[in-house]
Amino acid sequence: MTTFIDKCIIGTASPSELDDYIDLWHLSVVDDSFYEFLGLTEKEYKLWITLKLTIEEIINGRIQ
After folding, report:
1. Burial class (CB within 10 angstroms; exposed 0-12, middle 13-18, buried 19+) of 55
2. 24-56, pLDDT tens digit by residue?
3. Residue by residue, what is the 3-state secondary structure of the chain?
4. Residue 25, CB half-sphere, CA atoms under 13 Å: how many?
5. What is the dihedral of CA 34, 44, 61, 27, to 10 degrees?
6. N or C, where is the chain less crowded by C-beta within 10 Å?
7. How many domains is the chain built from?
């Protein structure tokens, strides 16, 4: 499955669509955790939550 983060990296999704993907996770019946569904690593998820990194910063960190 191509995740939200993967799609942002390849340009088929935009970080501005994050809320749509969060809604999809709430409606889904997948066994993936929230961060796995989005395509974040556990470390990235913790940074996003604790340090308030933006999704753009996380994506840029992957690209560099």
Report:
1. buried
2. 999 988 889 999 999 999 999 999 999 998 999
3. CCCHHHHHHHCCCCHHHHHHHHHHHHHCCCCCCHHHHHCCCHHHHHHHHHCCCCHHHHHHHHHC
4. 17
5. 10
6. C
7. 1
Which residues are CB-contacts of 56 (< 8 A; sequence separation ≥ 6)? 15
| pLDDT for residue 46 | 94
Distance CA 3, CA 50 (A): 22
Provide the residue range defining the domain that includes 42: 4-63
Residue 38 and residue 3: Cα distance in Å, rounded? 6
Residues 26/29/31/32 CA torsion (nearest 10 deg) = -40
